Amino acid sequence: METIEQLQAKLKQKEADIQDLRSKGNYAEATKLEEESAKIQYDIEQKQIQAQVDEKVESDAITFAVDGVDLTDLPVEVIKLAEAIVRADRRRIYSEQAIQVNEYETKQKDLEAQLADAKSQLEATQQERNTYQQQLADEKKLRTDAESKRDAAVQQLVEAQKENESLKEQLEEYKASEAFANTQAQPKVYTTADEATEINQALDSVKKFYKSLEDWGSVMKVTKPDGSFELVPRQTVNEEWTAADVPETADTTFRQETDTPNNTSVEADSSQVADDQVKVPAVGGSFQETTDTGVSGSSDEAVRDVHGEGSTGGAESLEARVKDLEDGFKRLSDVVAELINEKDVAA
C-alpha cells in the first residue's frame, strides 16, 4: 500500500503533467489526468483520516474493568485479545466520527462556495439594481422634461389659438368697416374747366421728364428739358422718369416777338396770355378763391409791358410771366397735395 507521502508525490506529478498537457493544447488527456488526480486526492484524505484515527486509538489508554474480576489474574493472551477488541471498537467509532466530520467539512466547503457564489450574485444584483435605479431616475427626468415641454407647447398652442381668433375678429371687423366705407358716398370735388387744366398742369409739373439719356453703366446721365442734368440709378430712371416732348413754341414765339416790326404778333400773343390767365388759389383755400397778387396781375403787367415796349421788353415780360406761372404751379401743387391728404384722412 502506498503511503501518504507517496500519494502526495504522485499527485504533484499529475498536476505538473496536467499543466504541460494544457499548455500543449491536449485538453482530452488533461481531463483524464484531472480525474486520476481527484481519485488520488480522495485516497490521501482517507489515509489522513485513518492515520488520525489510529493515532487517537493508540494515544488513548485502554482501561476497562469487570466487577468481581481481577484482570491481572487473566492470562496474557486474554488481556491482549481484550485490548485488541477495545481498540477495534474505538477505531470503528473514531472512523465513523471522522467520516461524519469529513462529510460535515465537505458540506461546509460546498456551503461556503454557495455562499461566495450567492454573495457575488448579490453584488451583481446590487450593481444591476443601482444601474436600473439610475436609468429610472434618468427616465423620470426625461419624462419630467418632456411633460414640461408638452405643457409649454400646449400653452403656446392655446395662446396661438387665442391670437388667431383675435386676428380673425379683427379681420372680420376690418372687412365690415371696409365694406361699410365702400357703401358710403365718396366726397366729390367740383372744379371748373380752367381749374382742372391748372390741376393737370400742376401734376405734370411735379413729374420727372428727361430730354435725353446717356448710359454710364450702373447709373445714367439724365439731361432735363431745361438743359441741366443729374446722375440717376438705372432702375430709378425706368421707374420714375418719363421722356419729355419738348415743343418749339417758346422759341417760335420769341422769334415772332423779336422779328415782328410792328409788334402785331406780340400784341396777339400777349392778348392770348391775358385771356388764358390762370387763377391760382391760396394754400388751404378753395378753387374759386383768388388772390389779388396772383398770376392775373402779373399777366396784366406783362401785357402792358409788351404793348409799351419793344421786342426786348416783350421778352422780359414773357420771362416774368413764366416765373409767375411757375410760382403759381408750385402753390397749386401744395393745394393738390393738401387735398390728397384730406381725401386719405376722410377715407
UniProtKB/TrEMBL annotation:
The keyword Coiled coil applies. Residues 250-274, 287-299 have a biased composition (Polar residues). Residues 94-184 form a coiled coil. Residues 246-317 are annotated as: Disordered. Keywords: Coiled coil. This is Uncharacterized protein. It comes from Cohnella zeiphila.
